[in-house]
């Protein structure tokens, strides 16, 4: 993978406000169109040269945003290999891509497209629009900090050929510089926090016995520039960094990286942090679940962003959420993982939906049942159950039982199609008559 080293300076986030606020004109911070036009007229009034004003109007015209020979597709772009000076390495990627059919590239190839360019995250930038609330009538006096939270990386299984495929941004969050690291911690969504502890086989329908891991193991920390930031808001939380700092003191090879310090995340504001933009740091929870976090951008809070402080942090991007489907019906979303299945099920552990019969005690033979975790995305409470618009397994199981009692002789696939037709607006009575007539003709 082509890369180069770029030297950047450590940035104290809060210093940006004092550094750039005096030089910013009123126009970028204007919150309504009338004030923006007045500011623009005032700036243009200082231009006394007619020729300069005409040239400025021509250069800023919308016609200059594109030209006739501009390439708009990926197939057109990769055909152009820019010239390089002799002392620079050739662009092997651009030379290789036009010579191969992109659709026929091997999934395991070093230059495979999926490995070179990971799938983009779902862009939710519209969540940060200013809105029409009364708060938009006042000028903001803060900074916006954009942070990328990545999925945990299995280092032991990482292949250098596919490393880009592992570094997947799970969330892109925008916070105010006046908010603390504890606010960032609460905004991070990870399936490990939602795992039910222990064997769920005997408690499938008893919600009082379902204990999520985040309720029991609440300790966590950030590691940023040699400092551990522990979450000590709960009296039961432990200072996880103490054992790490003690261990690091016994390692001579870590002397050049220390000394390490410790503080609390709830008392540390983002504006007080000194970080490198683009450098990965760590968020650790549940003992060994490590997320890389990257400070992506710091900018002044202008008229382009939401003005209500209570709306932050805001989710502006996430990874694709791929549901786990049942290994038996291969249609419904899985609700349970069954282990110790032997040869009765296709895999061990095996994902199952809730439409299959369990025993009276909620256990199928000696299977160990665990729940498939579904993570709710911040700012999207209505679309976070992980099911989307798919038919729920509970509803399908109930309908299947009714179908068997009525002796409709519909197999699960036919029943699922009928349910989808009813959900799309088809009259159930007419559909029942149609299916009945079709069954009679088939039997005849």
UniProtKB/TrEMBL annotation:
GO cellular component, one term: snRNA-activating protein complex
Main subcellular localisation: nucleus
Family statement drawn from the similarity comment of this UniProt entry: Belongs to the SNAPC3/SRD2 family.
UniProt source species: Fasciola gigantica
Organism domain of life: Eukaryota
One Pfam family cited in the UniProt record for this chain: MOZART1
Cellular compartments annotated: Nucleus
One Gene Ontology biological process: gamma-tubulin complex localization
A single GO molecular function term of this UniProt record: RNA polymerase II cis-regulatory region sequence-specific DNA binding
Subunit comment: Part of the SNAPc complex composed of 5 subunits: SNAPC1, SNAPC2, SNAPC3, SNAPC4 and SNAPC5. SNAPC3 interacts with SNAPC1.
UniProt name for this protein: snRNA-activating protein complex subunit 3
Alphabetized InterPro entries for the sequence: MZT1, snRNA-activating_su3
Keyword set includes DNA-binding: yes
Keyword vocabulary terms for this entry: DNA-binding, Nucleus, Transcription, Transcription regulation
Entry keyword Coiled coil: no
Function: Part of the SNAPc complex required for the transcription of both RNA polymerase II and III small-nuclear RNA genes. Binds to the proximal sequence element (PSE), a non-TATA-box basal promoter element common to these 2 types of genes. Recruits TBP and BRF2 to the U6 snRNA TATA box.
């Amino acid at each position: 993978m082509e890369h180069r080293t770029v030297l950047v300076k450590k940035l104290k986030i809060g210093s940006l406000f004092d550094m750039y606020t005096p030089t910013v004109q009123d126009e970028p911070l204007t919150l309504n169109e009338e004030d923006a036009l007045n500011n623009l007229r005032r700036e243009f009034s200082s231009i006394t040269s007619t020729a300069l004003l005409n040239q400025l109007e021509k250069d800023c015209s919308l016609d200059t945003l594109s030209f006739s020979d501009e390439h708009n597709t990926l197939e057109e772009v990769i055909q152009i290999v820019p010239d390089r000076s002799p002392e620079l390495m050739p662009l092997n990627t651009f030379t290789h891509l036009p010579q191969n059919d992109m659709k026929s590239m091997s999934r395991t190839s070093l230059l495979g497209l999926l490995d070179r360019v990971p799938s983009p995250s779902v862009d939710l930038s519209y969540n940060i629009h200013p809105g029409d609330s009364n708060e938009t009538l006042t000028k903001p006096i803060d900074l916006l900090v954009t942070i990328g939270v990545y999925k945990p990386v299995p280092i032991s299984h990482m292949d250098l050929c596919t490393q880009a495929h592992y570094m997947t941004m799970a969330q892109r969050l925008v916070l105010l510089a006046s908010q603390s690291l504890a606010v960032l911690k609460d905004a991070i969504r990870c399936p490990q926090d939602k795992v039910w502890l222990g064997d769920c086989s005997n408690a499938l329908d008893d919600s009082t016995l379902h204990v999520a891991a985040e309720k029991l193991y609440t300790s966590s920390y950030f590691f940023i520039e040699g400092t551990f930031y522990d979450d000590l808001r709960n009296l039961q939380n432990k200072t996880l960094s103490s054992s790490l700092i003690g261990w690091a003191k016994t390692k001579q090879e870590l002397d050049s990286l220390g000394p390490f310090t410790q503080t609390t995340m709830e008392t540390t504001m983002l504006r007080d942090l000194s970080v490198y933009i683009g450098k990965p740091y760590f968020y650790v929870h549940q003992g060994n679940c490590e997320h890389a976090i990257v400070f992506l951008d710091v900018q002044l809070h202008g008229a382009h962003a939401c003005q209500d402080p209570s709306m932050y942090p805001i989710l502006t991007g996430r990874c694709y959420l791929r549901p786990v489907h049942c290994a038996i019906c291969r249609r419904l979303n899985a609700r349970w993982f069954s282990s110790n299945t032997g040869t009765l099920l296709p895999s061990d552990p095996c994902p199952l939906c809730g439409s299959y019969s369990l025993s009276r005690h909620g256990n199928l033979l000696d299977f160990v049942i665990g729940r498939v975790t579904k993570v709710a995305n911040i700012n999207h409470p209505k679309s976070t159950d992980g099911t989307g618009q798919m038919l729920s397994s509970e509803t399908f199981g109930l309908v299947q039982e009714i179908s068997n009692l009525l002796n409709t002789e519909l197999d699960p696939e036919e029943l699922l199609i009928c349910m989808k037709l009813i959900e799309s607006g088809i009259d159930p009575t007419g559909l029942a008559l149609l299916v009945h007539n079709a069954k009679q003709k088939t039997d005849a």
